[in-house]
Amino acid sequence: MVKILCKSSKTFLIVLVITLIWLHTYLSGILGTENSVDKSPRADDDKIPGAAPAVVDETGKNGNTGGGSEHGRLGTPAFINLPEPRPLSAEEIEEITKEMTFENEMQRIYNVEKFGPVNEGTYVLVIQVHSRVEYLSLLIESLSRVQNIENSLLVFSHDLYVPQLNEAIRNIDFTRVMQIFYPYSIQLHPTSFPGQSPDDCPRDISPEKAQQTKCRNADHPDVYGHYREARYTQTKHHWWWKANFVFGKIVTLRNYTGVVAFIEEDHYVAPDFLWVLDLMETLMVQNLCHGCNLLALGTYLKTWNIKVANSRGVVTNWISSKHNMGMAFNRTMWNEISRCAPTFCEYDDYNWDWSLLQVAYTCLHQPMTVFYAKAPRIFHIGDCGMHYKQKKCNPHTAAKAIDAGVKTHHALLFPDKLTVEVRHGKNMRLKKGNGGWGDIRDKQLCLSFSKDEKYQF
Ligand SMILES: *[C@@H]1O[C@H](CO)[C@@H](O)[C@H](O)[C@H]1NC(C)=O
Ligand SMILES: *[C@@H]1O[C@H](CO)[C@@H](O)[C@H](O)[C@H]1NC(C)=O
């Protein structure tokens, strides 16, 4: 059930002393998350809770301007020079829809001949992919350097179908790979729900005006009086669909009882990611984490203080904006969560993590209790959230800073064991949600994923 890693003692020279700070700089009110409860409505603040703090190389040296020179490592396909997704013709949409349905049913696992079939000891990592291919290529590079990665199954869940990207993913050769495709994407529904339809109410029209013009969803503004915008709803839909698919539809995982870790395309992992995941899961299964039911391999920090925290884990109440990175849970927990589908799907918040928090506060039988690694083994290098075009993003700089830190502190990675420290955090007062999810069609579509019904357009 729990994977046994073979520990070689030489890795465990635990050095100490002096806090070395190599990651710093943090934008975003996300860090002071305690007050994010009172987060202003979407109108004033489009930021996704949990969007990243920036990571800056403290040396200030930024040699790599992102030319992709680090690509092409063993097992890492080149993701550069992929074409921008373009609008598709009706024929292409039909073709891709067929292809995608086929792939979701086939559930091909690549590299099984090399690494053997998936079994109870396999690590399952699910990666939600949208369009940030440059980040994704860095994530994959970092995954290729994770110890024991050959003992995993990477499930890439896409909401864009890009043949060249698919090919690049299928060329990953350092572990097993599967691709699944979110079928209700905007790409495949460019002019109708779940995409934006011409007779939808514009976001900013007033509900009174909407009634007069009789635009389609006039009766369903969000809690702030705004109408849906397709591109803001897709991420939550995709997240929910993917979790349902992974636990409910993937045949190979039908009997799998281990945790599934959820990663996003702009994350970056440390080489002992699976090692630490394994330690945490072992503690959870042995009931040694004070009733934890969620694991998180990271949290947002100002500094990566591995010298004092390399082997420390913290148990606390789950807070969406702090513990949404590298989250892992098992089927037992999923069954609890999915029982709360109506809460998740009807809560007027377009963020999956805030919706999950609502589930935790208003529906679950036990609190959501997270056990997280105090020195993160996963980082958010996407310092510009998906809504932000204006900020300079250099994923390569962030990745290099992390690599440098990992190199310097290699002896501190792979701790023998994790300590478990309990911290009682304050629950956040949830008010009405961040909006963006008032449309009844969104609620129904979301619910259809749990009911295993085909959504009727
Ligand atoms: C799951 O377990 C059942 C009962 O042991 C077995 O019949 C079935 O083949 C297993 N399924 C998979 C996909 O391993
Ligand atoms: C699944 O997770 C729960 C916590 O949510 C834990 O108590 C249980 O032992 C885990 N089950 C398995 C089979 O690992």
Automatic annotation (TrEMBL):
Keyword Methyltransferase in record: no
Biological process annotations from GO: oligosaccharide biosynthetic process; protein N-linked glycosylation
Subcellular compartments: Golgi apparatus membrane
Disulfide bonds: C201-C215, C289-C292, C340-C363, C345-C446, C384-C393
Single annotated GO MF: alpha-1,6-mannosylglycoprotein 2-beta-N-acetylglucosaminyltransferase activity
Membrane-spanning segments: 12-32
Claim: Glycoprotein is one of the keywords in the record: yes
Alphabetized UniProt keyword annotations: Disulfide bond, Glycoprotein, Glycosyltransferase, Golgi apparatus, Manganese, Membrane, Metal-binding, Signal-anchor, Transferase, Transmembrane, Transmembrane helix
Highest rank taxon of the organism: Eukaryota
Binding-site positions, Mn(2+): D266, H380
Pfam families given in the database record: MGAT2
Cofactor(s) listed in the protein's UniProt record: Mn(2+)
Membrane topology type: Single-pass type II membrane protein
This protein's name: Alpha-1,6-mannosyl-glycoprotein 2-beta-N-acetylglucosaminyltransferase
Source species: Allacma fusca
